[in-house]
Design goal:
Elements: H1 3-11, H2 18-41, E1 48-50, H3 51-57, H4 62-72, E2 90-92, H5 97-106, H6 110-113, H7 117-121, H8 124-136, H9 164-167
Antiparallel strand pairs: 1-2
Helix pairs in contact: 1-4, 3-4, 5-8
Amino acid sequence: MALLQEWQKISYNQEQDRATLQRFWQNYFLIEKGIYEKLLDNPDEEVSGTVKELADKYEIDIMAMTGFLDGINDSLITPNPIETMEEDTVVSLAFDKEKLYENMVDAKADWLYELPQWDEIFDADKKKTLYREAKNAHTIRNTVKVGRNDPCPCGSGRKYKQCCGKKNK
């Protein structure tokens, strides 16, 4: 069984009681925060190795490393083959800084996007811009629907049904 499937069985186990699952995720988030602190200290350094080597480097177990790789994969410059990876699969943690920050905001992971290391990477204006972009990316804007008998929005002065509405039929 691939590591990702094992990780998903453990992390989304429906048979565990809520308190146990909550403790599991609290522990994982602390591990994740620790890894990101180290990565963001040297954001331009490309960290790579096998899954096992990276787990050893960050002093965590293979499953926690699998979870971390799953979480960061969308922010990587070149995504890792997480669906099929095993302990000896070579992976890279070379991430796109802006994409990573936006993905952390999107995940509502304030314990990650508020890390002090980000202050060394982006200035306050850049962080504000990235934050706003991440929040607006999933915002659905409802536009006012033009009624058949309303004036046409093109400015012709005619009714919508006699102007642009006629073209849309």
